[in-house]
Amino acid sequence: MRLGVFTPLLSTLPLEGALEKLSTLGIRTVELGTGNYPGDAHCKLSMLEDEAALAKFQKTLADKEFTISALSCHGNGLHPDKEQAKVARETSRRTILLAEKLGVSTIVDFAGCPGSTVGSKYPNWVTCPWPPEYLDILKWQWDQVVTPYWKEHAKFATDHGVKIAIEMHPGFVAYSPETMLRLRSIAGPSVGCNYDPSHMFWQGIDPIEAIRVLGDAIFHVHAKDTQMYPANLPRTGVLDTKPYTDERNRGWIFRTCGFGHGAEWWKEFVSTLRMFGYDGVLSIEHEDSLLSPDEGLNKAVEFLNSVVLKETPGAAWWV
């Protein structure tokens, strides 16, 4: 297992500058955004039509001895606004095509969330079974929107030799191990998950036990933590809609690895991942509102280097 970095936290730097900075930290693997929510600061889909730009991009990575763990295009391809859905879907399809050209096996995306019915303006994330019309909405979403889109999109990915790692995130139809596996049962084995333990923590899901549920459906992993605030939870609950920057009053916030849970927890997390067949990249994602991107990156690398299970020929050990 090795460390990587999801590079939007370095979006103010050009690709070369971001790689140089990461190399000083001993990082040689990156996850790159191609559009939608992560943006495309370091990886442009226009390279599909520009062979010279593609060659320059590949040379930059090769010269600095970097590999790509995944291309990420987190978006809402099920958005009820047709134009928003079109942009998200096209970005995801083109990300698959670029991954194929680059020899990258995995892209990361969201499952998306439809509206309540045809003609809706905004997505509707259903979180309870009553009153009964909520279950009617949920059934319509899965039967009429989720299933046809993901069957088609998963086939497109399969045809191009690429896997889609869905990030389980509240606000979208696949947000828990159960809903993720439901989507996988519909779409097939080319769809699995980008496993971010921070999203499990605040839903009250034990991220380590959830690995046992997901098993070989884990394609890629984000390294990000969550800190719960018991003093606020009796008032807010976990479905807290206050801004992430209102840290004093929220029930929880995202944290840099090690600031929500300590080394013993993270050792067990990476050990369980490996036990269930994942021995790939832990891609550091920075969304800690109490630390700057530079602080968060440095702290996360330092912390995770102390707990990640590394390999050497014929042996493996904790460092």
Automatic annotation (TrEMBL):
Superkingdom, taxonomy of origin: Bacteria
Pfam family, one: AP_endonuc_2
Coiled coil start-end: none
SUPFAM superfamilies reported in the protein's UniProt record: Xylose isomerase-like
Keyword Cell membrane assigned: no
Species this chain originates from: Terriglobus saanensis (strain ATCC BAA-1853 / DSM 23119 / SP1PR4)
Keyword tags: Isomerase
GO MF entries: isomerase activity
Keyword Isomerase: yes
Xylose isomerase-like TIM barrel domain sequence ranges: 20-306
Protein name as annotated: Xylose isomerase domain-containing protein TIM barrel
